[in-house]
Amino acid sequence: MSEGEFEKVQQAARLIEGRTTLRPRIGLVLGSGLGAFADGLEDATAIPYQQIPHFPVSTAVGHAGRLVVGQCAKISVAVMQGRVHFYEGYSLREVTFPIRVLGALGIRALVFTNAAGGINRKLRARGLLLIRDHLNFQGSNPLLGANDERFGPRFPDMTEAYSKKFRTTAKQVARKLRLRLFEGVYAALHGPSYETPAEIRALARLGADVVGMSTVPEVIVANHMGIEVLGISCVTNMAAGISKKKINHDEVLEAGERVSRQFTAFLRALIPALVRATK
Ligand code: HPA
After folding, report:
1. CATH number among 3.40.50.2300, 3.30.460.80, 3.40.50.300, 3.40.50.1580, domain 5-278
2. Angle at 27 between CA 22 and CA 30, to 5 degrees
């Protein structure tokens, strides 16, 4: 950890705490085309990332770039409407800085969402997948460099990076809503180019069910801080070569927006259930 990072995180957290009296218990990160949930929060305060000290600013289309603190079913939540990615040129430390800040706000549970390409042929575009585990193919790790023990240990365990208890809860909630929810492994690649069919065949052999360009560094940092994690991928397209169709970002966003009503209903039901299940 570079010198002063802990203090920078504290500065960012203090600014957020100065803008709202709510003290969020749970955090959410909304991926490409999935930002609508934040618009339905009660008592909401939205803070553009530019106004938060040291926060990276998202450049990807489909990412609003603001932190919304509000209430969902009377539970205070902090929602990142948009994230930054490794492919935007930020270091993984910068990419994961907001997760450190959410930790400093006292959040003990985090829900990560993303758009992903479907590798497993049982998946369908526009389906939802609960992330059971991940493969880090970004070729780097956000914890590289000196470790600051105030954040967490040098060698964090990743055996249950995605909380089993949270996954059980998510499956129960999905069943109640009659929502199809697959469970599987998310592989994170660098991007920004989409994968080749050969890469997708290789990933399938290595056990990946979906592929995307985010989430994994953030999940590593959340685990480093002892925050319990749930991950949900929205399968916006079938991966290269699985479907003959070419992949384009506008379609990814459109597919995300098309599931957004269903997705928002799922998140709204999920949040109280996760709070009940939190350690
Ligand atoms: N590959 C990588 N990232 C993605 C995809 C994909 O097919 N779809 C949405 N994000």
Report:
1. 3.40.50.1580
2. 120
